[in-house]
Amino acid sequence: MSLMQWFLVIIAMAGLAVVGFFVGVTLIERTQARRVAPMEPYAAPMAPVSKTVRTRAAVIYFSRSGNTALAARHVARRLDADIYSLQVPEYELGLTGLAQSALGANARRNDPAKLPNVTPRTIDLTPFSTVWLGSPVWFYSPAPPLWAFVENNRFDGQHVVLFNTFNSNFGDDQIAAFRSKVMERGATSFEHKHVLRGRMTQQLTPEEMLQAIDADWFGTPSGN
Length: 224
Ligand SMILES: Cc1cc2nc3c(=O)[nH]c(=O)nc-3n(C[C@H](O)[C@H](O)[C@H](O)COP(=O)(O)O)c2cc1C
Known about the structure:
The model has no long low-confidence stretch (mean pLDDT 93). 33% of the residues are buried. The chain has a single domain (3-44, 53-218), classed as 3-Layer(aba) Sandwich (Rossmann fold). The termini are far apart. The chain is globular and about 75 Å long. The protein is of the alpha/beta class. Strands 1, 2, 3, 4, 5 and 6 form a six-stranded mixed β-sheet that branches. α2 links the parallel β1 (56-62) and β2 (82-86). α2 packs across α6 (206-218). The protein has helices spanning 3-36, 67-79, 95-110, 144-152, 172-184, 206-218, and strands spanning 56-62, 82-86, 128-138, 141-142, 159-166, 189-196. The structure holds flavin mononucleotide. Residues 63-69, 98, 101-102, 105, 136-140, 165-169, 197 line the site of flavin mononucleotide.
């Protein structure tokens, strides 16, 4: 084979490897999403919220493949909190959504003003004393939908808890930037909780993830 033919073969193999990686990740994500979706169903308490006595917690989260959603339901159940899911249709499960997620995370890292449209855009958070904000880590940072939510809302007088699920690493600089952003938007205090799920082929089971959350975030096992 000529040098040019070898070059084309190597390019084609590299392309196949990239496509194979994305297909593999998508299959794992779909399997995980199916497994965790029915776990720990939770409906917010029906008691009316008081705008004058702020004791309640709200849990607001974005999740693509369901792991942060499961963590959010678990936290909300433990705290008897209201729960809200943030939606960004272009980041849905599947190959296109995965590519859009990577592009969106990269775009925000290069330009923090590049944020997706998130639904709901705003939530009336005035009844709550504590606001939990959850997302996966994308490119070492909370995923763009959570940044978008923070940009559109205020946290006056509130304690904000950022919580993340992730596979391997996050950037302390990114968490510090997120903290600055919520403090700028009125929060009085901030903490970061996180659960390391492990790399794709050797991850915690959902049950192990919840046990880690109980131990590391709450210090006690869940009541049920
Ligand atoms: C586009 C993209 C980028 C990611 N980047 C990181 C990363 O930088 N560090 C990390 O530890 N995990 C990373 N992950 C893995 C997710 O953070 C992890 O699987 C998370 O638990 C998924 O949460 P979810 O099921 O709620 O969507 C990334 C996942 C995606 C889809």
